[in-house]
Structure formats: C-alpha cells, structure tokens
Amino acid sequence: MMLELQAKGCHNIGFVSPTHFVPQMARAILIAAEKGLRLPIVYNTNAYDSVEILRLLDGIVDVYLPDLKYADDEAGFEYSKVRGYKTFAREAIKEMFRQTSDELIFDENGLLQKGLVIRLLVLPNDLAGIEENLRWIKEELSPKVAISLMAQYYATNKAATDSRYILLSRRISEREWFNAVSLLEELNFEMGFMQEYESASHYYRPDFTDAEKPFKDIRDFQ
C-alpha cells in the first residue's frame, strides 16, 4: 500500500497513533524501502508514547508530529482519562527531539522531509496550559522547535452536554487565541504554523490543516 501511494504521487506516508502496532509498521517500512519506498515517514501521535519504542524508530521515522495536549497530569486524567500524561508526553517528545533536533528540512518544493513539529491546541479556560508548555519547550528543548498552534477546538458529545466538563463546553474566544499567539512572540519562537482564527474557530472544518499558514518570523502573526 505504501508503494502504491508513492506511485500515485503522495508526499509522505503518515501513521496516526501507531504505538500499538509499531513492530508491524517498522517491518513494513523496511520491506517497502527495499522495494523502492523513498517517501518521508510521518509519526502522528498524541505523544502518550513509550520512549523505549520511539528509540527503536530512530532512523525510520522522518517527521514527528506530536500533540502536547496538557501541561499537568490532572487535566490529562480529567479530560482524556490517561494517567501521567504530562510526564509521559514530555519524555516522549524529548526523545523525538533527540532524533530530529530543532531543524526542519524541506525539499525543493517546500514540502517537509524531516523534523519535529509540536502541535498545541488552544482550549477554553486555558485547560491546555499553553504558556507552561511553551516555556517547557523553550527551556528543555529549543526556541527553534516548530510549533503548530491550533484554534479549531469545538465542543461535542459529553464535552458539550455533561456538566462535569463545563469548562470545555464552548469554543475558544478571540482573546484566548490572541493570548496564545502573544506568548509565541513573548517567548521568541522562530518557526512553526498557525491557524487563522476566523476560519478555524467559528465552524467545524475537517480539513483544518488547509487553514494553517507557515511562519518563519513571529511578525507573521500580527
């Protein structure tokens, strides 16, 4: 299937939350590479990953695309029902950074070939802890790490109807989005991607990545 996708002109091979089938994934990639696969391999994950497994992928995965959903373990358990999210996610992202450093490598067409992009979804009432996560990235990794700042959160299912999750029951405000963008400037992050607030926050877009725009200078946010 990977070779078929390459033949059809796809730009990369992306695996989403693949931790539980990494052995099969790695074996398939190696077989495909022997038969001519040359596309970048993208590891798209919620970052609740095993460092041991990630180490085995060194040299196999080209692009790491992790979320950093929360800045504390309590929020991770309350809203995603996982224990120790902050601890495990940060250790996993450290390993991804060790493998890729803070450099993004693009081809002649501007398509990403190798690197690390950390996605931060702005949540209402600052439940994601954007500032704390950005400071951690800057201090523990590098201010040159690429950040994908996302505005498309919307409430559905229990988040929209269950009183236990009332803090998640609305879209983010323009002020909350502006505060998150301002933090990138304040902390001097240099590279990444952002969504347009107007296109991402007022209605649901399954193709929200089309609304992202790259920036290489923080002034592009203004």
Describe the structure.
The chain is an alpha/beta fold and 222 residues long. It has one domain (2-221): pyruvate-formate lyase- activating enzyme, CATH 3.80.30.10. 38% of the residues lie in helices and 17% in strands. The protein is built from nine helices and eight strands. The protein has helices spanning 2-7, 22-34, 51-56, 73-80, 85-100, 130-141, 157-161, 174-186, 197-201; strands spanning 13-16, 41-45, 63-66, 105-106, 112-121, 146-150, 192-195, 212-215. Strands 1, 2, 3, 4, 5, 6, 7 and 8 form an eight-stranded mixed beta sheet that branches. A hairpin with a 5-residue loop joins strand 4 (105-106) and strand 5 (112-121). The protein is globular and about 55 Å long. Residues 201-213 and 215-222 have low confidence and may be disordered.
What labels describe this entry?
222 residues; alpha/beta; pyruvate-formate lyase- activating enzyme; 9 helices; 38% helix; globular; disordered C terminus
Please give a quick description of this structure.
38% of the residues lie in helices and 17% in strands. The protein has helices spanning 2-7, 22-34, 51-56, 73-80, 85-100, 130-141, 157-161, 174-186, 197-201; strands at 13-16, 41-45, 63-66, 105-106, 112-121, 146-150, 192-195, 212-215.
Per CATH, which architecture? Alpha-Beta Horseshoe
General form? globular
> What count of helical segments does DSSP give?
9
Biggest β-sheet description: 8 strands, mixed
- Please trace the helix and strand order, writing H or E for each element: HEHEHEHHEEHEHHEHE
Look at the structure and give the mean pLDDT: 89
The total of beta strands comes to 8
Cα radius of gyration in angstroms: 18 Å
Measured distance between first and last alpha carbons: 42 Å
What level of helicity do the residues show? 25-40%
Residue stretches low in confidence (pLDDT < 50, at least 5 long) are 201-213, 215-222
